[in-house]
């Protein structure tokens, strides 16, 4: 929860300095907020705010500034604050009035601070006037209409609070894969750098590349003699908001964004997506966010077993354990242990008799299987395929030669056609498809037919240049057309026929969500039948952690697309690679593949940075059992053009 970072960090075991600059700046910010919640004098509040900001932007070492006494000379840090900071950093003790402030503020009020757009002033007002002291009581009061009549609040802000509470609960439950990976990589890199750590590996759903992550799981291989020092060093890493538990071999932590040394920003998000994940509040939610991490410290000879166990999934583990049992073996996080030898022994004691394995590969080999790549460990056929030596040869980033759904400044993209083409070439791609929005989508600055066709001329010009230079690169010209009533496309046929392809996408989410599955499916089938439609874009419209997709029978849609392909008409389904979407879901990829419907992994890039999102699409494609031959992205430019125009 957001309140979790509202604690006074524990001092490092050795010092001075006992606290980092970041920690001190955070604590002063918290003090300012708590003072405001308690209705303290504005000037006092502001002095903490200013000091926090000043410290946050310091480039000199805080420990040195304090040791030399220079801290007292810094603008905004007077005598009182200067001594408080000196005591904290040099003795590892926070001032007692700060501690009192934390202890005397009701936890419920702190929790309410996590609601986007709600600050301490209003929380205090609602507390004083209505006795609201928790998120739950705020929700009840808002639903009861008690907030709106308060002076300076109103209907709108009451509704905004309810929306904010909804958003917060959704946001807290799980985090998107890109965010989980960001935290997970930053944390494992820090752990791996600790002396004595042999290996630190991200396990759990993050390693399996699930689209959302509950918590991080990290397995650390360390020799017995280094165990204690490594455990201590982990507890002292930057970026830990709280320690939930620290046992002998298991450490439970809460990480916050201070783990990112280079700072934390969310980057460009296209407006359709942003609206669904909280709009302007999203950045605040994300930068104040936390993620739980469970760390297991194990000796090297056990590490492979622990890694396999905590990679999961639970379903895969169960299937593997069954397999072990049928061979007279016990499989758990400590080993693969012959029943006959371990007898009544349990846990580490039994693990003494384990078959040896220094890698997961050896564990799978002991059980008569190929190594199963983590993405496939969901018990959807990988165990039997591993036994029969029939695991797929999964697609990799190096198979990708281009993508077909990208935006430029012609609609709502940030980068020009030239910048996009240049970046694609630097990524080693052989082709890049541009598919700007169509006129109906005004919020995305949909382009007119005239401008679209002019873009086509520019593309022809560049393609010719590249060809003359002997460059194996081309731009491919398409459009992302809105799907209009009756399954119609958003440009006249004579315009569409001049393009290489059309991505048909739903954007009028309100309308589509208001209808039922039958109506929506019918309209998708109609648009697929349109001769110009090549690709069905982001097929459900879901935004992860934002909104569910519209109701649709995608199995029927995919079957319908299969009929077209059987008849020789290319109809591809998009796997939208944006980490906010990952739509087509991996669970359906296998189905499309089985029916011979080509898949196209598209970053839906709205900036040059957005092109890199293709990696999340490849992760998702791998999770969906896709091989390079299942996606259009692996075609050469020439083969792609002949597929598009066949
Ligand atoms: P998450 O965190 O909800 O995104 O999903 P996971 O898969 O990371 O799940 P988590 O963190 O609860 O546990 C990590 C792995 O540990 C899980 O994938 C499999 C293993 N595991 C946890 N609980 C059990 C269990 O009760 N039985 C078995 N067989 N394995 C378990
Ligand atoms: Ca997990
Ligand atoms: Ca876990
Ligand atoms: Zn779109």
Features:
Beta Polymerase, domain 3, 646 residues, DNA polymerase, domain 1, seven-stranded parallel β-sheet, binds 2'-deoxyguanosine-5'-triphosphate, 13% strand, alpha/beta, 29 helices, five-stranded mixed β-sheet, Beta Polymerase, domain 2, binds calcium ion, globular, binds zinc ion
Structural summary, described in words:
The protein is of the alpha/beta class. The chain folds into 4 domains: 21-173, Orthogonal Bundle (DNA polymerase, domain 1); 175-298, Beta Polymerase, domain 2, CATH 3.30.460; 311-387, DNA polymerase, thumb domain (Beta Polymerase, domain 3); 404-644, Metal-dependent hydrolases (TIM Barrel). 44% of the residues lie in helices and 13% in strands. The chain is built from 29 helices and 16 strands. The strands form 4 sheets. It has a 7-stranded parallel beta sheet. Strands 2-4-7-6-5 form a 5-stranded mixed beta sheet, sandwiched between helices. Strands 1-3 form a two-stranded antiparallel sheet. Helix 23 links the parallel strand 12 (474-482) and strand 13 (501-505). Helix 1 packs antiparallel against helix 2, helix 1 (21-37) runs parallel beside helix 7 and helix 8 (135-143) packs across helix 9. The two termini are 54 Å apart. The protein binds 2'-deoxyguanosine-5'-triphosphate (DGT), calcium ion (2 copies) and zinc ion (ZN). One calcium ion binds at residues 204, 215, 217, 294.
